[in-house]
Amino acid sequence: MPRSIAIVEDEPLIRANYVEALTRLGYEVRGYASRGEAETAFAQRLPELVIIDVGLGDEPEGGFELCRSLRAKSATLPILFLTARDSDFDVISGLRLGADDYLAKDTSLHQLAARINALFRRMEALRRPVAADSVFAQGPLKLETERMRVTWNGIDVPLTVTEFWMVHTLVRFPGHVKSRDQLMRDAQVVVDDATITSHIKRIRKKFIAIDPAFDAIDTVHGAGYRWRA
């Protein structure tokens, strides 16, 4: 039985394009034009993954409101923002409300499909017992590859799928400088240098929120980033 995906997007053409593209990939997809329309449908049955735009019709932050109410209904439902609004402030707002990932609308269908697959994989892995060989520990950091989960001093670090793979690349080779190209490749994203910089900035902020003394990620100017050995 195909997995069900809901797309909440107020632009009819964009909504229709995503519904058609993801249906071709084998998903059962339904599109909704507004927060109200989506919430009415979700009260009957929750889909297995939801893709949301931030601005919905006359609600500039309708997507954030929808994310909040969905997260209250289900702690594990994968929620992905797909929006033209990708400032640091908007991204962090979305992730604080419990979204799992946040992509810009100029993201390719290939990248969107990779993100959806990764979220479904993470959801399945969270249901399984932890495999010992998928756990990497170093000092206060623990990384579970299968579950795409990172903890610091035993506290969950709420990383998106993109951020998880960037941290994974850095911590597996502590002390080694990883270029922006390597981080992009491992995270399966194709973005500019400024976007990689803002991902790293957000990753740091998330660790610092747990531990204000966190300083394990070094910027090596002109070369990339490294996790302190």
Automatic annotation (TrEMBL):
It comes from the Bacteria. InterPro entries: CheY-like_superfamily, OmpR/PhoB-type_DNA-bd, Response_regulator, Sig_transdc_resp-reg_C-effctor, Sig_transdc_resp-reg_receiver, WalR-like, WH-like_DNA-bd_sf. The keyword Transcription regulation applies. Coiled coil: none annotated. CDD domains: trans_reg_C. SMART domains: REC, Trans_reg_C. Keywords: DNA-binding, Phosphoprotein, Transcription, Transcription regulation, Two-component regulatory system. SUPFAM superfamilies: C-terminal effector domain of the bipartite response regulators, CheY-like. The keyword DNA-binding applies. Residues 133-229 form the OmpR/PhoB-type domain. NCBIfam families: marine_sort_RR. PANTHER family: DNA-BINDING DUAL MASTER TRANSCRIPTIONAL REGULATOR RPAA (PTHR48111:SF21), REGULATOR OF RPOS (PTHR48111). This is Proteobacterial dedicated sortase system response regulator.
